[in-house]
Amino acid sequence: MKKLLVTMLLVATTATGAHAGLKVIGKGDAMSLDPSALPPAMKANYQIVKAKCVKCHTLERTIVAIQTGVAPISGQPFDRSATKAYGVKMLRKPDSNMSKPEVKASVDLMNYLIAESER
Amino acid sequence: MLRTLHAILETIMFLKKHPVAVMFLLGFVLSPLLHPQSAEAIPAFSRQHKTECSTCHTIYPELNEFGDAFLKNSYVWPRKTPAAAGQAQEAGEKGSRNEWVKISGLPEQIPVSLTATADLAYDDEAYDGNKFDLSARSLRLHAGGAFREAAGFFATYNLYTQGQQRGAVASSPANSANTPPNNTPNLNELFLVWRHALDTPINLKVGRFEPKLSLWKKSNRVITVPSYASTTYLVGDSPFSIDAPEDGIELSALLGSRLLLAGGMVDRNGQNQKDGYGHLSFKIGGTDFKGEEPEVSLESDSVWDFLAITMGAFGYWGRNGQFDNFGIAQNLNDFRRAGAEMDILYKRLRLKGSGSFGRDSNPMFANTAVGFDSRAYAFEGEYYLGAPVNLIPLFRYEYQQGLGGGTRRYIPGVAYAPLQNTRLSLQYMHSDAPEGINRIAFASLAFSL
């Protein structure tokens, strides 16, 4: 019983306010997704997001947008049409260093995560 | 003790003899301190919207496409609808507004920031023998933001300036963007914009501001000293330049999302006649003036995926004169300016072109008027390096036809942002003017907080 209580306490202290369908590790700047919960195709996409997006901002920004359905800075709805627009924005940003296949992979991942978080 | 003193003196003598070595030595010594780290830009807009400088800037103060849309939207986040803002609050957005903020319309934080600059010039043929000059510095106060989404405001106040930047003296028609000629505390800009007045697309701006003529504000440059000859040139004794802040009223409106129209009236002291001006700009490709991204296919390629072309044209007509003892303008000068500009962005390459010409009926404010036709143009090529952009090599060519003849200026330069709120620039200015050739190496350090 004691062990169970300790385990529950540990889980409670490490848990974030993540949406039920989205498995998140860490908090704040260290927030990231749990790749073990992703299908193989999305795992590869996640590696791209992890490598490219964090050059300019934390993953927290993306995860919060998916969890809440609202982009944290602009206050705009963060839905499927928004993910495409953000993808285009990052593609065109001279400093993003992202190719079209990389942007497409990132948009596909965000759309998958939105669908998962809506479950 | 004496040995130490002797060594110090020897070092000073060496540095005095080799000023170029000093510049490189300083850069080398300081560079480890400025090693790139995670960006933490904190000026007013950044704090207000909790976003990094690179959202709106390439290397500050130059604006990127989104920054330009933010400016055109009078410092309100583009496309931020009240419904979306409410949804964000409901979703527990960080920094959501308190009720008192919402009711009063006040910004959540005091929207103030500071910019400090320190300049270093090397002129081998300095008229006063002071080849290596470290005397120019300035501290500027900025305030900007929005009262809810109803109005935007902006102010710039020169808290302190000292010294005159060498690039702006004699050989150059340009006045420094950072060091005003009067070197005294000075309100540079202070204006309020009533956004979408009476639910129309028209924005009404009142106060002291740079009239909307050029595509770029005077501060919207990678290298701010000198400013573009085409927008900053003076003729004779007339203090008018296209980019000088004026007291006035301006109306502007976006037609669709890619056509901007602006026009206004300027009040000049010592006379009853007002100046008038108009501006038109149009953008093809790229982020539109409302901050909306273009439709791009992720399956196929097109040149318009990355190409953005902005074109602008403007006209200004006014009158000024020399004040007599009662502050009444005498020996009046009627002047006109017209210009056209283009801004091309393709991936990391940005090209800017600006040309203007004018007519002054009496630019010397003389008893016997002698007219003068002026013209000037500037071309600049920039290449963005880094992710986010932190290094921009550039080259600028300028020409100005002044009263004494034509001046050509060649300016290769490089700007580096070790942090997004810190900028180091190094440039070489080769001026071929009627009075002779002038060569100046110029370094500048600026930071905002």
Word description of this protein:
The complex is a heterodimer of chains A (119) and B (449). With 119 residues, chain A is mainly alpha-helical. Chain A has one domain. Chain A contains five helices and two strands, in the order H-E-E-H-H-H-H. In chain A, a hairpin with a 6-residue loop joins strand 1 and strand 2. The longest helix of chain A is centred in the last third of the chain and has 19 residues. The N and C termini of chain A lie far apart (33 Å). Chain B has 449 residues and is mostly beta strands. About 10% of the residues of chain B have low confidence. In chain B, a hairpin with a 2-residue loop joins strand 16 and strand 17. The interface between A and B is medium-sized, with 28 and 40 residues.
Which helices and strands appear, and what pairs or packs with what?
The complex is a heterodimer of chains A (119) and B (449).
Chain A: H1 2-14, E1 24-25, E2 32-33, H2 40-52, H3 59-68, H4 80-92, H5 100-118
Antiparallel strand pairs in A: 1-2
Helix pairs in contact in A: 2-5, 4-5
Chain B: H1 2-17, H2 19-30, H3 44-49, H4 65-72, H5 82-90, H6 99-104, E1 112-122, E2 132-133, E3 137-147, E4 151-162, E5 186-194, E6 202-209, H7 229-232, E7 246-255, E8 259-267, E9 274-284, E10 307-323, E11 329-346, E12 349-360, E13 372-383, E14 391-402, E15 405-416, E16 422-433, E17 436-448
Antiparallel strand pairs in B: 1-2, 1-3, 1-17, 3-4, 4-5, 5-6, 6-7, 7-8, 8-9, 9-10, 10-11, 11-12, 12-13, 13-14, 14-15, 15-16, 16-17
